[in-house]
Design goal:
By secondary structure, the protein is an alpha+beta fold. The protein has eight helices and 18 strands.
Length: 391
């Protein structure tokens, strides 16, 4: 590699990492209680992975961040270079020992970069959780890390394809499992916004010391992702393939009974991934092979197909407001009718923020905040408040 390319790589990395803070890994935890699923908005749809608690939450949008875009470009260049580097080293290897060394060195480099990305996410999440930074800043960081993790995962896969002697298979499987926790469909939209593809949809962000939840509405779909960092340990996997099938059926009983397409794969010896395509949408989820705990989930559901149960109804001046069952960051359906059930036009706000006007069907879909909050419906004749508890 010539000096000009070395200089460009160095300059990009310095520019993209200026001001970054890398935290040491926190002490590990084996407390994986409550790392299963909780009921969704209805017994007739999928359960969801939830954080044990939410310490900080709000709504924000992702947008163009020049330094973040530079960081992503730098990371992409680094990964492209490293894939070329290991490919050339393997091609030049004249002995099995040289081949193994090339693969091992590439795996070592990928491991160091993975650890740095995980540390960066922990630092950013803790800064947001404790009020040291804004939700917008945190969303920019997770969008940037999504893009970097995707590029690094491509490198890990490339090393896998070159490893004819199975040098470090388990290590790379573990890296891929870790990199998956930095990626998701909501973060993909945030990464696109970071690059200048337009402002992202309004996004719910909720964090704890042990994980994050992001949720949004996009093109008629409800999209949610959750990661639990306390649900994995360093022990070798004990679950068999059949055990994993049983565990996923326990976690997602409705999806297991109503699936159109189901796939389960083993990632190394310590991670199982499942994908359900069901009548309401899709689930992609991962469990730890030693604990059986669910540590990563993303769900996409069509709003048109989600069944709802109106658990809160208030009537005033011939206006009836029904609000669906929900959870923090969950889909929230507000239905406004008159006493005979005819749709009523109304402006709807949630916790003081306007979220839209009812259409011809009298319905507004939005995302639920965490905690207790008012849903306020204003028609030409009256204003109706409904108290909602999403905990």
């Amino acid at each position: 590699m010539d000096r000009a390319v070395h200089a460009l790589l160095a300059a990009l990395l310095v520019a993209s990492s200026a001001g970054a803070v890398v935290a040491a890994s926190p002490p590990g935890t084996t407390d994986v209680r409550a790392t299963g699923t909780v009921d969704g908005i209805s017994t007739n749809t999928t359960d969801v992975l939830a954080l044990e608690s939410i310490d900080a939450s709000t709504f924000a949008r992702g947008d163009l961040v020049v330094t973040g875009a530079i960081d992503v470009q730098a990371a992409t260049l680094v990964e492209t270079h490293d894939r070329k580097r290991v490919t050339e080293a393997v091609a030049a290897a004249e002995t099995d020992a040289e081949h193994r060394a090339a693969i091992r060195n590439a795996t070592d480099r990928a491991e160091r970069r993975t650890e740095a990305l995980l540390a960066a996410e922990r630092t950013a999440r803790e800064d947001y959780r404790t009020g040291e930074t804004t939700a917008e800043s945190y969303l920019a960081t997770v969008g940037r890390l999504h893009a970097r993790a995707a590029a690094l995962e491509a490198t890990v896969r490339a090393v896998d394809s070159l490893d004819e002697q199975s040098v470090g298979d388990e290590r790379r499987a573990r890296l891929r499992g870790q990199l998956m926790t930095l990626q998701g469909p909501v973060r993909a939209e945030l990464a696109a916004a970071l690059r200048g593809d337009g402002v992202s949809p309004r996004t719910f962000v909720g964090v704890s010391s042990n994980g994050l939840t992001l949720a949004t509405l996009s093109d008629g779909d409800y999209v949610r992702e959750t990661v639990r960092t306390d649900a994995q340990d360093d022990d070798p996997g004990r679950l068999s393939f059949e055990d994993a099938q049983t565990r996923f059926a326990e976690l997602y009983p409705w999806a297991s009974e109503h699936t159109d397409k189901y796939s389960l794969r083993e990632l190394g010896s310590d991670v199982y991934d499942v994908e359900y395509a069901h009548t309401h949408g899709t689930i992609i989820a991962s469990i730890d092979g030693s604990t059986g705990a669910l540590f990563r989930e993303s769900q996409t559901k069509s709003l048109a197909g989600i069944p709802t149960e109106e658990t809160r109804r208030t009537e005033a001046d011939d206006v009836v407001v029904g609000v669906s069952e929900t959870y923090p960051g969950g889909p929230l359906r507000v239905n406004v009718t008159n006493a005979t059930g005819e749709p009523v036009g109304a402006a709807v706000s949630v916790d003081g923020t306007a979220v839209g006007n009812t259409g011809d069907d009298g319905i507004v879909w939005t995302i639920s905040p965490a905690g207790t909050y008012p849903v306020t419906v204003t028609t030409d004749a009256t204003t109706v408040d409904v108290r909602v508890d999403a905990t």
